[in-house]
Write a structure and sequence with these properties.
By secondary structure, the chain is α/β, with parallel strands linked by helices. 45% of the residues lie in helices and 15% in strands. The protein is built from 16 helices and eleven strands. Helix 5 packs parallel to helix 6 and helix 14 packs across helix 16. The longest helix is centred in the C-terminal third of the chain and has 19 residues. Bound molecules: NADPH dihydro-nicotinamide-adenine-dinucleotide phosphate (NDP), 1-deoxy-D-xylulose-5-phosphate and manganese (II) ion (MN).
């Protein structure tokens, strides 16, 4: 079998390193052509020594010299502006986009324009520019396969089904570390508490998003674009065990669910092997050990970010990009202990109310609105 040639954008992160674990298990199936990181040049250099890619890029130029001196036999590049070029390298079959935030958008777009198979972890790409990405997808031979666990579950439930038969998607949410907190307790939340996700070990930004449930809001927007469904047909439900990764209810009342331990290697390998499956050596569910699978409604009052995200997609245009940029700034400032936890939804709400652009959507104005919103959000914080 011909090896799948991979470019992993964000190879030093949580998803990137797990993708490399999969490549390590399957040296006969994957060849690593390109790796990128932002600042962690030491880990990137180790990855280069192990996987020997033809290209390596460090987006933070400060670390170019360190990286260049640490590796040989690989083309070393620096600067975030070159990420889309890595995503469209002619020798690459599959782009695994595990960058975090808006920084991943242009690479997704470019990978699709150049006809790649795109295994997409970077949900923010679809949040900010879903309309542009889906328009490019229909024009090219590219494939867009979600890595996000819920969307992978949806895709797996939809194999062999007709899209017309979907009544609704049930997107599950763990509820994060503050599921049982009162609104008063939420006022005192610390960074350490918010980074302590009950089920998943992930990068810092998505872990904070899970705690505010903005993650679920972003994922509803992601599902809206991936499966071409109105937001009203995507219902979030709290499932604290994170065993059911999502469900589809069909027009005859039947529902399908995809289950498994909370382990991102499963959706990652599914995206890489789709439409086939590759074996994966990872822990299995023990079905003899009884475990309760429970469900609760989402408390939209305690987690206002979910509604803000749903409203932003209903508003359309640039609103989701404003939501995303304000959230990225608020999360970063919270992680730096510069604002309180409860300020995160406030900053997003105020940005959405004040930044409006009615122009038709394109990449350049998307970049401008992202920049403008970031600057506005920092101003509110001041
Ligand atoms: N982790 C998970 O389990 C899941 C993650 N996702 C999504 O996948 C994406 C990646 O998440 P995760 O792996 O947790 O994130 P991490 O923070 O762990 O990793 C992010 C990666 O992107 C690089 N990076 C960070 N900032 C920039 C930037 N400005 N420009 C270019 N590269 C950058 C980092 O480099 P460096 O290490 O040098 O900083 C790192 O390689 C996110 O969109 C997230 O929402 C979705 C579902 C599950
Ligand atoms: C693993 C994954 O896909 C994350 O997006 C996960 O869903 C986060 O958990 P929450 O359900 O708490 O947002
Ligand atoms: Mn998810």
């Amino acid at each position: 079998m011909k090896k799948q040639k991979l470019a992993i954008l964000g190879s030093t992160g949580s998803i990137g390193t797990q993708t490399l674990e999969i490549a390590r298990q399957h040296p006969d199936k994957f060849e690593i052509v390109a790796l990128t990181a932002h600042s962690n040049w030491e880990l990137l250099a180790e990855q280069v020594h192990e996987f020997n890619p033809a290209y390596v890029l460090i987006s933070n130029e400060e670390y170019y010299t360190n990286l260049k001196q640490a590796v040989s036999g690989t083309k070393v590049m620096s600067g975030a502006e070159h990420l889309p070029a890595i995503a469209s390298l002619p020798e690459v079959d599959t782009v695994l986009n595990s960058l975090v935030g808006f920084a991943g958008f242009e690479s997704t777009l470019e990978a699709i324009r150049s006809g790649k198979k795109v295994a997409l972890a970077n949900k923010e790409s679809l949040v900010v520019g879903g309309e542009l990405i889906m328009a490019e997808l229909v024009k090219s031979e590219a494939q867009l396969i979600p890595v996000d666990s819920e969307h992978s579950a949806m895709l797996q439930c939809l194999v062999g089904e007709s899209m017309d038969d979907i009544e609704k998607i049930i997107i599950t949410a763990s509820g994060g570390p503050f599921r049982e907190f009162s609104k008063e307790q939420m006022q005192q939340v610390t960074v350490e508490q918010a980074l302590d996700h009950p089920n998943w070990n992930m990068g810092a930004k998505i872990t904070i998003d899970s705690s505010t449930m903005m993650n679920k809001g972003l994922e509803i927007i992601e599902a809206h674009w991936l499966f071409d469904l109105p937001v009203e047909k995507i219902q979030p439900v709290i499932h604290p065990q994170s065993i059911i990764h999502s469900m589809i209810t069909f027009i005859d009342g039947s529902s399908k669910a995809q289950l498994g331990l909370p382990d991102m290697k499963v959706p990652i390998i599914y995206a890489l092997s789709y439409p086939d499956r590759f074996p994966l050596d990872t822990p299995r569910m023990n079905w003899n050990e009884a475990q309760n699978l429970t469900f609760e409604p989402v408390d939209f009052d305690k987690f206002p970010c979910v509604r803000l995200a749903m409203d932003s997609i209903s508003k359309g245009g640039y609103a989701p990009a404003v939501l995303n940029a304000a959230n990225e700034v608020a999360v970063e400032r919270f992680l730096n202990k510069e604002i309180g936890y409860i300020h995160i939804p406030e900053i997003v709400k105020e940005s959405l109310a004040n930044i409006v652009l009615n122009d038709s959507l394109n990449t350049e104005t998307l970049k401008e609105i992202d920049k403008e919103t970031r600057s506005y959000a920092h101003t509110i914080i001041k």
